[in-house]
Amino acid sequence: MRTRYLIAADGAQSRVGSNLGLESNREWIIGVEKVFTGARIEGPPSLLCFLDPELAPGYIGWVAHDGEETHVGVAGYRARFNPLASLNRFRTKISRIVDLSRAEEVAQRGGRIPIGGILRRIGNDQGLLIGDAAGAVSPLTAGGLDPCMRLSTFAADVVTEFLKTGDAGVLRTYSGDKFRARFTSRLWARRVASSLCNPTLVELGFKALATPVLKPLAQHIFFGRSSFPDFGSRFELENSKSLKLEV
What residue numbers bound the domain in which 46 lies? Predict the structure, then answer.
């Protein structure tokens, strides 16, 4: 198959990125979840998050109930836990909150989640990376859908302009270096989170984030619009050579 330009969205272990000589993800957590129908859980659709450094070291356990299906999962550093064994223990631990005794398991999935921040070399004159392949995942929260959509919009603008003009200089604007500096605080927060192995310390940290002083910070980090660096979404040519980004 021949193409003028290639956009790769082939996941955290991108073979396309490797073949193009671009940068690869090197820091991960491993996640696994099971999906059930018929689970009994009180209340409206909800997302419940659980901190447990033994069952989910460096991340969380979760129960996501959408009103029809219930997702139960854990994630963490592979060297510090057995994902499937932890998931089974987690299911037992939450049995008072989620009744799965009559539920039917309809799916099981898992994989690597990159947490090293957006990569520096994510494009060249042959192709570019988006999504997990580009490391477009929040290092702290491991959320990837929102940054993937924003980076994809930026990539579409860049590639469209390149195909219209044939100017390879346009492609140089698509660089992870533009966003790496904004990851500094998130990367440090990730390192702090990864070092919390004691359940008591995790509990104290959680209680601290729930205080009136730190709660606004926690809301900004985990739910704020700027919880992930924004990407340029529009640009215009200047002197037919350089690009001005509107970020």
Answer: 28-114
Instruction: Choose the final residue of a domain: 114, 141, 167.
Output: 114
**pLDDT at res. 227:** 53
Residues 80 and 190 in one domain: no
Q: How confident is the model at residue 245 (pLDDT cuts 50, 70, 90)?
A: very low
* Same domain flag for 64 and 156: no
Q: Confirm whether pTM is higher than 0.85.
A: no
Q: 28-56: buried (b, 16+ CB within 10 Å) or exposed (e) per residue?
A: bbbbbbbbbeebebeeeeeebeebbbebb
Question: How are beta strands 46-50 and 61-65 bridged, if at all?
Answer: antiparallel
Report pLDDT digits (tens) over 80-92.
Answer: 999 999 999 999 9
Last residue of a domain, one of 114, 130, 161: 114
Report which of 58, 51, 78 is spatially closest to residue 196, judged by C-alpha positions.
Answer: 58
Q: What is the pLDDT of residue 197?
A: 77
Report the chain's mean pLDDT, rounded to a whole number. Answer: 85
69 and 170 housed in the same domain: no
Would you call 203 helix, strand, or coil by DSSP? helix
